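Late entry, evening session. Most of the bench is empty. Finally got around to the prediction I had been postponing all week. Sequence below, unchanged from the version circulated by S.P.
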Amino acid sequence: MHLVNRNFLTTEEVYQDLFHKIETLVYMPGVRISENDLCETYGVSRHIVRNAITQLKAQGLITVYPQRGTYVSLIDMKLVEDILYVREAVEQEALYRVIDLSDTTELIDHLDANITEQKKIISHEITVDDFNTADTAFHRNLLNAVGKGNVLDLLKEEYVHVKRWKNFELRDEKRYEQIIRDHQGILDAIKKRSPLDGRNALHQHLDTVTNLRDVFTTANPEYFIRP
């Protein structure tokens, strides 16, 4: 979003811009947010900034400490783990149904094309937003195949916390290739019609808290709340 120097910004526009910056780690966890600086940056009143901050606070993205200031919330690893647990339960059931379909030709074509697109994205200058869009589309294809394409939207409000964790993961460029390998493993299981291989591949792919928590939270403990 390009809001700076625009006239008459609304609370919603300021909120959306701050939300995106927190989600994509432009504002890192734990960083102090100055209302005065935001008013100057966006050219709006303190009332608009405070309303936007109130919305972000309600979503757990901002923490206000009396007498100390306003800060971007740390990434709560227990919350991320719980959300991913629900997501995996949904996708494991969808994958089981996919493998049981009589014809998976169209789905396999879509997933093959999606993985090709992911490889194109990382072969050029990596754009996190573009890669995340392709990643989301891969999983949406799985759910669409069994008529459950909108189920993950039920987690939309909470999922920003997972996205912050994932964007932190993607600061390590090796993670892009691993995610693509994970997707390929899921696709191979569908092609072989192997529920066990599919279950293992999907679990490996989505259980990132178990796989990576210690790596990142040990290196950068200042950004996380650990269970």
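Two things to note before I forget:
The two ends are 34 Å apart (CA to CA).
The longest strand covers residues 62-65.
Will write this up properly tomorrow.
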